[in-house]
Amino acid sequence: MGAGTDGLNAFEKVAGCGTHGLRSVGVEVVQVNVGLRCNQRCSHCHVEASPERTETMDWPTMEQVVTVARQTGCKFVDITGGAPEMNPNLARFIAELHAAGIAVQVRTNFTALLESGNEDLPLFFRQNEVRLVGSMPCYLEENVDAQRGAGTHGRSIEAIRRLNALGYGHRPDLVLNLVYNPVGPQLPPRQDQLESDYRRELSRRHGVVFTHLLTITNMPLGRFRTHLRSVNMEREYMDLLVRSFNKETLDGLMCRRQISIGWDGTLYDCDFNVALGMPVDHGVSCNLSDFDLSALAHRQIVTGDHCFGCTAGCGSSCGGALVESVLGV
Ligand code: SF4
Ligand code: SF4
Fold first, then answer.
1. How many angstroms from the chain centroid is the CA of residue 251?
2. Which of 208, 272, 293, 304 gives the lowest tally of CB atoms within 10 Å of its CB?
3. How many CA atoms lie within 13 A of 176 on its CB side?
C-alpha cells in the first residue's frame, strides 16, 4: 500500500489525517534505543536483536541525548534496545540523567539482569529511581519459552523475585510493569482482564508481584514479519489490523508525544520506525546534533502500513493499550 495521487498513504487516508498527515503535539517522552545487542533472540522481535548484533550507542551520543532530553523538559527518558543492559555505558547514562533531574524508565527482558556483571544493576536501578518495564508474554512457561527461548520463563521469574525483594512491584515508587504480547497473529485481549489473570497466576504459581500489565500488539515487522511470511499469514494479519482500525486510538499514539533516538543518534518518530530505518522527515532534520525542539514538537510523522498495528482494537503503544476496551473487536 503506497502513497496515492493525493500524496496520502493508506494509513493516512483511513486515519483521516487530511493533507497535513499525522502530526505530533509535543515531545513529552524521549525514547532511546541504546543498541541492538541482546542476550535473547525472540521470535517476534521487531528490531531483530540478538547476541551477534554489534550496533551500540557510544558515550558521546549518550551525552548529547542527556543535553536534548534536558532541553525538552520531557516527563521521562525511556531506554530500550536490544537489551539495554548489554550497553557497557548504561549505568553511567542513567546516573547522568538522574543527576540532571530527568526520570528514567528502562525496558528489560529480565534475563539480561542475571547475566554475569549485571548482578548489581537492580540495586543501582532502585538507587536511581528507575522505573522498570519487563517482557513477560505469558504466565505459562511453555508459551514464554516458545517465543523467547528455552529457560527464559524460569530466569525471568528469578529476576522478578530479586526485584520484588528490593521493593519493585510492591512499593508505589518502585514501578515494575510487565509487557504482554500475543504469541501468534492475534490482537491482545483486554488489558484490564488479562492483568487480573496475570496477578492471580503469577502470585499463585511463583509468589511474585508487579505494578501493571501493558498489552502490546505484535507489529508486522522484523522477525515477526519473517514468521508471518513463512506461514503465509502476512496478508491475513495485515487485514486483521486494518479491519480493526479504531479512530479512538489516534489521540494517544505514542509518536504524537515522543521522539525516538536510534543507537547512532538518528531521530525517528517511534521505535518501530527505527526498525524500518525510516527517520523523521517532512522538512525536519533527523540528526541529533541539529535537534530543533520547536520543529520536532509539531512535525509531520512518517507513517506506513505498519501504523495499523498501533490503531487496531484497543490500540497499542510502548505504554500498552491506548483505550480501555472496544466492543465488537
Ligand atoms: S524482543 Fe526484546 S528480549 Fe527479545 S530479542 Fe528483541 S530486544 Fe531482545
Ligand atoms: S508505528 Fe510509529 S509512527 Fe506509526 S502510528 Fe505507531 S507510533 Fe506512530
1. 18
2. 293
3. 26
Q: Does residue 41 line the site of ligand 1, with CB under 6 A?
A: yes
pLDDT at position 325? 52
255 lines ligand 2 (CB under 6 A): yes
d(CA 243, CA 264): 36
38 in ligand 1 pocket by Cβ < 6 Å? yes
- Ligand number nearest CA of 279 is 2
**77 pairs with which residues across the strands?**
30, 104
Of 308, 260, 267, whose CA–CA distance to 29 is shortest?
Answer: 260
Query: Quick one: which of 33, 52, 69, 60 has its CA closest to 274?
Result: 33
Ligand 2 centroid vs 280 CA: distance in angstroms?
12
How do residues 22-75 score in pLDDT, each as one tens digit? 999 999 999 999 999 999 998 889 899 999 999 999 999 999 999 999 999 999
Using alpha carbons, list the distances in angstroms from residue 297 to 138, 251, 252.
Answer: 36, 15, 15
Sequence-separated (6 or more) residues with CB below 8 Å from residue 91: 121, 124
Strand residues in 208-249 grouped as ranges (E): 213-215
Helix (H) or strand (E) holding 135: strand 131-135
Domains of the chain as residue ranges with CATH: 20-311 (3.20.20)
Residue 89 CA from chain centroid, whole number: 20
Q: Whole-model pTM?
A: 0.95
Q: Give CA–CA dist 122/68, Å, rounded.
A: 27
pLDDT tens, 279-326? 999 999 999 999 999 999 999 999 999 999 999 998 888 888 888 654
CA distances from 311 to 11, 159, 270, 279 (A): 10, 32, 14, 20
206 lines ligand 1 (CB under 6 A): no
